[in-house]
Design brief:
Blueprint (H helix, E strand, L loop, with lengths): L4 H10 L4 E11 L5 E6 L5 E2 L1 E3 L7 H13 L1 E13 L3 E2 L5 E16 L8 E7 L9 H10 L6 E2 L11
Parallel strand pairs: 1-7, 5-9
Antiparallel strand pairs: 1-4, 2-3, 2-8, 5-7, 6-7
């Protein structure tokens, strides 16, 4: 996976220090109710489309850009599904990262799904009853997209109230 230039600059100074970064993950449906997936070039696994916002870029803008860059599909963001912090990961090069993901429901409005950059080995639309093997987290995110509920997040513990 190509590393964004601004992260390369940070890594030049920070080395393998754990970086806490924003991420966007998109559950993209077409008019037939199929979900858009890519087989990632870094792991070979099928996954939802995801990426890192550029500095100053809004999450929805990053979502639309990442979908187009990776799959050539044009999409619009319909709503936020969840916001949460993932577990820490370590890449093969030793870099450590932890992402706070904004997961969004998106709808395809144009383009034709295809491998559009070097981040994917394959791209395709999948019926919900014919998904390839996916990590459980991707299934959870697709399930959230199918519900008409407010955005999901890990609730904070109730603050202690102090008497006066």
């Amino acid at each position: 996976m190509p590393i964004p230039e601004f992260i390369r600059d940070i890594r030049a100074k920070a080395g393998n220090t754990l970086l806490f970064m924003p991420g966007v993950v998109m559950v993209v449906f077409d008019d037939s109710g199929r979900v858009l997936l890519n087989r990632r070039s870094d792991t070979g696994n099928w996954a939802l489309i995801a990426g890192i916002p550029e500095p100053g870029e809004q999450p929805a803008e990053a979502a639309v850009r990442e979908i187009s860059e990776e799959t050539a599909v044009i999409a619009v963001v319909e709503r936020i599904l969840s916001v949460f912090t993932n577990r820490e990961i370590e890449y093969a090069n030793g870099h450590r990262a932890q992402y706070m993901d904004v997961v969004m429901l998106c709808r395809a409005v144009g383009g034709t799904a295809k491998v559009n950059d070097d981040e994917s080995l394959d791209v395709g639309w999948f019926a919900l009853d014919a998904l390839p093997e996916l990590a459980p987290l991707h299934h959870e995110r697709i399930a959230l997209a199918l519900k008409d509920e407010p955005a999901w997040f890990v609730p904070a513990p109730a603050p202690e109230l102090r008497g006066s």
